[in-house]
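Section 5.1 Outputs to date
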Amino acid sequence: MATSIEKAKYTSPDGSKKWEYLSILTCAWMVGCFGCIVGWNSPSIVILMSDDSPIPVTESAISTLAATSAVGQLIAPPLNILLADRFGRKNTMLLTCLPFLANWVLIAIASSIWELYVARFLAGFGVGLLICVEPMYVGEISSSKTRGAAESIILIVYNAGILITFVVAPQLSLSSMAVIFFVNNFACMVTFLFMPESPYFLALKNKMDEAEEALEKLRGKTDVSDELQVVIACLSKNEKGVAKSGTIKDVFSSRGHFRALVIILLFS
């Protein structure tokens, strides 16, 4: 337990989930930005194919544009393995915002289809990073009682991001829409800077004091020694190869796993 009063200034003996909820909601916001990226294609293609299109395009170019983001998504996941364990879950999440922002900048200033190709490739790259590291981060900062609800809320916000894009995009020009989404994404990135790093990652790097401080902040408690020991034990099992890969049978034999499966199916 941290003995420094300064270190525990934001905690109370009874606990508070304020920072845990804030972190989860900010992750949901970021995934909502991801939803805007995914939802951009359909309404924007209609604008590009219209008679008064701001950028001359062909049907072949539109087909290529729709597929370009998938190329970025293919490249990103292998890199995520290196980034998340080396630089941290939080920093990798922040990194995903950079290609998102670059995507909106390029769309806002685009004068040819080639700028849109690059924009969508970068957007896909960011999506490929985010879909890998976001569940990792949320799973590691959330307590067992909020983990399932957190991922459900995040999935709802993701679909809301797509819906908002479908509603807003037809009312705006490509550049105006890009500016609005850029501001939203930038605000999300700045907000996420204040969220704590995953205590699992900090413990993995043998930064035990920082891991304890992150847990204290997330749980709002002055004593998180029990949970810290659980974190250390989980990491120790993984290092020793004790943790075994799950099977399909485990999904149905474990009540927690089965509930998670039902939640995913209901909100997918």
